Amino acid sequence: MSQTPPAQPSGQQTGTDCPFDIAVVGLGYVGLTLATVLAEVGFRVLGVEKRADVVNMTNQAMPHFSEIGLADALARVRDAGRLEAVVAFPQQTQASVYIITVGTPLDANGKVRLDMIEAASREVARNMQDDALVILRSTVHVGTARNVVSRILNESGKRFEIAVCPERTLEGKALLELRQLPQIVGADDQSVRERAERVFRRLTKSIVQVTTLESAEIIKLVDNTYRDLQFAFANEVARVCEAWDVNAHEVIASGKLGYERTNVALPGLVGGPCLEKDPHIFRQSAQARGIDLEITAASRLVNERQPLETVTFIVKQLQSRAIQGRVRVALLGMAFKGRPATDDLRGSMSLRVLQLLKLALPDAEIVVYDPVVALETLRSQVKDVLVAASISEAISQAHVTVIANNHPALGMQSPIALQRLMHPDAFIYDYWNHFSDLSDAELGHSYFAVGNLSGRA
């Protein structure tokens, strides 16, 4: 989308030579992985991040989160002098391209926050020269690029071009997928789309152009809302199977074997920094035009309700065992997912399960463990619980072990092996059906999973 006054046909910046090719505003999960890969393919990249600790770690080639291959890649580009992180744009330092990657969390009322987008846009507006290309990569309410970012950039009086190029990678596979996934490039003008495409063509050979800013914004929201719908249906199947004392894992796995028209996901906790919010943003975008998305709303309801339903079952099981003394609960897997592995706690439904367990069992001793999240991080982020350094430490003499994410390490020992370390009258509740392929003899007498409350394999 070219803004008035009209940009020069070349689409190139004029005036002072730019010491950086690209400025990435926001060095979170999206920004740091992108900045690193852009630097790897030869761009000179400036990363702007207001958190001084993240800037210092980046300049020391130390990622502030776990991502496969990122530490080595970051070290390479830092050694090559192609990536520098700063807390604010230095004076007299501009770039040819600006990519906004800041977060868009929901506020206390469940509405998408735009303050970080607005702040980043103002920083870009102050720093850019005429004819800069500004790319919005954050996940946003439809219309944000045109009505928020463009409006702020226009107030600078400078010429610029704007495109929306959403991020669609999986945490744990970001470096690989940045080079493999099709990149959506949305802008109102063909020349702007081609200019943005030239940036991402250095990363991936697969570019998909769409003809408006809003089309690109909607695509990202559709992607994540569709995944939420799929997982919600799987959790609905699990609820029905529980009601009929049937194994949902068997129903889903058997039903789709050799039958491509049915490809139901397995049930489990649904959260994370994207799925917990993007369907809400999609629905709010529709409501802005007088439309309510009933299926989207229902899917969020199913997935957000699951922790309460399952914790209610866990508490009833504990009560039925007439446990003497203080109840000990082990909660394994605190990151929002385990495959691909991550240490990201944002939007983790494990934290919601923990919150509900603490409310329902105020006197219980609760121990948490995660195969990836650092102990010091867990201790700082998860209050009033014990933090274990190993599975065996966490489950020792536990009355219940709750397996809350799908990291492979949490399924390495059979339920019988786990129960040997637990209290004699203990049971296991598995949100991810790690063991539902096992026989009755291998499962032991007290294994329950989402969609399989009989313990029968």
From TrEMBL:
One GO biological process this protein is involved in is: polysaccharide biosynthetic process
Q: Where is the UDP-glucose/GDP-mannose dehydrogenase C-terminal domain?
A: 330-437
Q: What species was this sequence derived from? A: Orrella marina
Which family would the database say this protein is a member of? Belongs to the UDP-glucose/GDP-mannose dehydrogenase family.
Query: Which Pfam family is an annotated match for this chain, by its short name?
Result: UDPG_MGDP_dh
Give GO terms: molecular function aspect only: NAD binding; oxidoreductase activity, acting on the CH-CH group of donors, NAD or NADP as acceptor; oxidoreductase activity, acting on the CH-OH group of donors, NAD or NADP as acceptor
The reply on keyword Transmembrane helix is no
Q: Which domain of life is it from?
A: Bacteria
Q: Which UniProt keywords apply?
A: NAD, Oxidoreductase
Q: Record keywords: NAD included?
A: yes
Q: Which SUPFAM superfamilies match?
A: 6-phosphogluconate dehydrogenase C-terminal domain-like, NAD(P)-binding Rossmann-fold domains, UDP-glucose/GDP-mannose dehydrogenase C-terminal domain
Its name, as the record gives it, is Nucleotide sugar dehydrogenase
